[in-house]
From TrEMBL:
Protein name: DoxX subfamily, putative
Keywords: Membrane, Transmembrane, Transmembrane helix
Bilayer-crossing regions: 26-45, 87-112, 119-140, 160-183
């Protein structure tokens, strides 16, 4: 019996050790970026498009919808007149939030400054969740709760999973198949820094 257990342990270590060696340095980051791209990239880009003002320079002047999404209570207080909201700090928050919603997801997927972009996206998701709960007053079913046995809550459950994928990228990096990996090989003479 002990020979069978010993064989099973050696087989287990050989199979999963080999798998770990085979995927080391490229797979986890690539997989996390793929999951982010397939689940969240279009979501965030579509959301960002609702925040852009009219015309070719709309990215410099966020829409009324951007203010309403990011500063809902303040917009209601000024009857949705963005002219009554000071640029500093509130207009600047809306402008930078709009740009972040465009740039950070693209940077994560491309693997460019991935750790910083992923950390920024985690902050973005936290702020977005806070605004949804306190500013848009989403219901308890939408907020949900951790360990409640219902994995369908948009905020507690789904956004925790979003943050986890991003946390993997913060801690492990994007992997060698990324712009960070390419730039690292070019700038550091092949040394890994991603």
């Amino acid at each position: 019996m002990s020979a069978l257990i010993g064989f099973s342990v050696r087989l287990y270590v050989a199979v999963f050790g080999g798998l770990e060696r085979l995927t080391d340095g490229w797979f986890v980051g690539l997989a996390a970026r793929f999951v982010f791209a397939s689940v969240l990239l279009v979501y965030f880009l579509n959301s960002a498009l609702t925040k852009v003002g009219p015309g070719p320079f709309g990215f410099l002047e966020p829409s009324v919808g951007a203010y309403a999404q990011i500063l809902p209570a303040m917009m209601e207080a000024v009857s949705y007149d963005t002219g009554r909201i000071a640029f500093f700090p509130y207009g600047l928050i809306v402008l930078l939030g709009t740009w972040a919603e465009f740039l950070l997801p693209v940077m994560v997927v491309a693997g460019l400054f991935t750790r910083a972009a992923s950390l920024g996206m985690i902050g973005f998701v936290i702020v977005m969740s806070y605004v949804d709960i306190t500013g848009h007053h989403v219901g308890a079913a939408t907020v949900g709760a951790l360990f409640d046995g219902n994995p369908g809550a948009m905020i507690a459950d789904q956004r925790l999973l979003w943050a986890f994928v991003l946390l993997v990228l913060v801690l492990k990096g994007p992997g060698g198949l990324s712009l960070d990996g390419l730039l690292g090989r070019l700038w550091r003479g092949g040394k890994r820094y991603y």
